[in-house]
Structures are given as C-alpha cells and as structure tokens.
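Per-residue structure
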Amino acid sequence: MITIKKGVRKSVKKKGHPRFKRPNVGRTKRSRLKDKWRKPRGVGNKQRQKLKQAGKRPSIGYGNKNKHIHPRGKKEIVVHNLNQLNEYKNRGDEFFIRIGSSVGVNKRIKMLKLANEFGLYVLNRNIKIKIKPKRIKLKDNQPKKTKIKLNA
C-alpha cells in the first residue's frame, strides 16, 4: 500500500520525443549539414514517403498535455500590465504569475506589491536595475591639443 505524505509536491513530467533529424543527415558526404529539422521536399525522399528506416518526423501526436504548466503543477501565466494582473485576483491556488520581460522597473515594483496583496506567487520576483554611467563634460577653459607643423 502506498502512502502519500501531505505537503509533498507532485512534479509534472513532460513526455519526450525522438530527435528529429534532417533528411540525409547520416550520409557521409552530408557531414556539413547541421542536425536540425528541415521539412523533406524531394520527389524521391524516403523521409517524405514515411519509410521507417528514414527516421521519425515531427507530428501533432508528439504534442504535450502539460503545456504552460510549471513543474510544480500550476498553470503559468505571463502578465504585462496591472489590468491583466487584476484578472487573477485571489486565484493564487490555481496560477503562477510571470511578469513579462518588456515591463519596466517601476511598473514591475507596482505589480509585485499588487501580486503580494492578491496572494499570487510571482516566478520572476528579482528586479534587475540597469544604471547608465554618467558622461563627464569637459570644462571650456581646458587647453585644446594642437598639431605642430614642421617646415622641412
């Protein structure tokens, strides 16, 4: 008999798929080809004809039911403004929030405070602040460099 302890999270495992190789990638003279997928378009191409020895092709059957689900088991939602955040008010038990990368620092701070009030867990809580270096202006009375001409 299996006993399940309270407080232990069940992690979400996504199913895998075979490596989809480019047509003719294994042939000796084709070593220059990279190992990434390209759709086979040739008339006599064995992979296009779906022969077993030519390798697997990507298809809808390899789709995943766990799309947009965080490994902790809740849905993951990307939010870009305060109105979108208000839609998930008091629903922290269903969703994890991720703040969009294009959101600035000031808006991000407001969104973090609001998410805290609503009881939402924000996945990317850390704030990256970029500081621009100040340019130093030269004073007007500094001497300018001049070129010296030599008469030969």
